[in-house]
Write a structure and sequence with these properties.
The chain is mainly α. The protein contains four helices and no strands. Helix 2 packs antiparallel against helix 3. It is elongated, with a radius of gyration of 23 Å.
């Protein structure tokens, strides 16, 4: 028997074992409602603080470049803090109700 290799559909499929664990740990959409509220609050406060600090630094140094660099660093910090589904955002998982059968679905059977 000849062993046929399955075609690789993308380069992401060639990630080594450690990389696969990292990719799998980034489960999309696994935040509770309270976690989403917390992420939104952290995001808003980080961006406002970055804007204030950027304005002060840019004004003190009279440089728009410094203003944009400080604000860009704040945006990067907010992205790292809020975009990945960290465990602190899933402390209160949402429990959904089981679906009920309606009279129409019983009628169709």
């Amino acid at each position: 028997m000849s062993s046929r290799r399955r075609p690789v559909l993308c380069r992401a499929a060639q990630i080594d074992g450690a990389g696969v664990a990292v990719v799998r740990s980034l489960r999309i959409g696994q935040e509770s409602l309270q976690g989403q509220r917390l992420a939104d609050r952290i995001n808003q406060e980080t961006l406002v603080l970055a804007a204030v600090l950027a304005f002060i630094a840019g004004w003190a140094l009279d440089s728009q470049k410094v203003l944009m660099l400080v604000y860009g660093a704040g945006v990067a910090l907010a992205l790292v803090a809020c975009v990945p589904p960290w465990e602190m955002y899933n402390r209160h998982p949402t429990r959904w109700l089981e679906p009920r059968e309606s009279a129409e679905s019983k009628k169709d059977l």
